[in-house]
Amino acid sequence: MNAKPARTRTAGKPATAAPARKAKPTGQPKVAAAANGATPLVEMRDISIAFGGVRAVDHASVDLYPGEVVGLLGHNGAGKSTLIKILSGAYPRDHGQIYINGQEAQIANPRDAKAYGIETIYQTLALADNVDAAANLFLGRELRTRWGTLDDVAMEAQARKVMGRLNPNFRRFKDPVVALSGGQRQSVAIARAILFNARILIMDEPTAALGPQETAQVAELIKQLKADGIGIFLISHDIHDVFDLADRVFVMKNGQVVGQAPTVAVTKDEVLGMIILGKCPPGAIPGPGAMAA
Ligand SMILES: Nc1ncnc2c1ncn2[C@@H]1O[C@H](COP(=O)(O)OP(=O)(O)OP(=O)(O)O)[C@@H](O)[C@H]1O
Ligand SMILES: [Mg+2]
């Protein structure tokens, strides 16, 4: 579907820059929640990590509000996955702070992240193919009866409840998940995350392997989660998907944030200019990776 752009490894490091033209006041995202002075659900501030000589993430700051979808865009190797892996506890950062609901968070491993309600859905989904949806939802966290046996009835009832909310058309509770469509499998993975009280969902390329119909199904799921107040970081190569779903986008290039913008304030072409050239349009708030005007 969405062809991956070629790896971008430009040698020239974009200079720290002022906006190309007069931009709106810098610093604060322009979503309704921010306008109300709400506290971000997540704030990653000045995050850096290097692998050997490669500055995979270079003083990047991003934030996310409850019920908001924030798209992370950028070429291959821009640092998107590495940045969110720091949030999910998969990588330790070299520099910077993470705040959850305004409080500094200590995230050193995936278990810490889960304790803050952060769940990640990887493209591979990591489902157990040969068992049904309910078994997948409770994998490793099975409900038991007071006699210590698996409480299949309770697990299926809860599975039906959470799946019913996410994907009301889902009926295939008795089938192994290997038999489900890509979109249905995605809803099982999302249900598993929210069953355990995810407030912050990270989706890394959720639609990369899906056809148009299934992509539409995932879009519906994302809208449901938004309505429930869950904040979502959505990483995608597909600028169209991101534009349809995200309230705001952050663009990364060479590990740096080029800028951020509410999707209503910029065009797709302008965002492409941010991705490819590092050029911030007037509707965007430039970051440290923005090209000099
Ligand atoms: N574990 C690692 N060891 C060494 N280098 C790494 C590691 N993970 C990422 N990198 C490097 O860090 C940079 C950022 O990679 P990252 O995977 O975060 O990019 P991305 O924006 O997610 O790209 P893609 O769109 O291809 O998924 C790249 O130069 C990559 O090669
Ligand atoms: Mg990636």
Element layout with pairings:
Blueprint: H1 32-35, E1 42-51, E2 54-64, E3 69-73, H2 80-87, E4 95-100, E5 103-104, H3 110-115, E6 118-121, H4 133-137, H5 152-166, H6 182-195, E7 200-204, H7 212-227, E8 231-235, H8 239-245, E9 248-253, E10 256-262, H9 268-277, E11 285-286
Parallel strand pairs: 3-8, 3-9, 6-7, 7-8
Antiparallel strand pairs: 1-2, 1-4, 4-5, 9-10, 10-11
Helix pairs in contact: 5-6, 6-7
The chain binds adenosine-5'-triphosphate and magnesium ion.
Structure description:
The protein is of the alpha/beta class. The protein folds into 2 domains: 14-117 and 199-293, P-loop containing nucleotide triphosphate hydrolases (Rossmann fold); 132-197, no CATH class. Helices cover 29% and strands 22% of the residues. It has 9 helices and 11 strands. The strands form 2 sheets. It has a 7-stranded mixed beta sheet with strand order 6-7-8-3-9-10-11, with helices on both faces. A 4-stranded antiparallel beta sheet has the order 2-1-4-5, with helices on one face. Strand 9 (248-253) and strand 10 (256-262) form a beta hairpin. The radius of gyration is 20 Å and the shape is globular. Magnesium ion (MG) binds at residues 80-81.
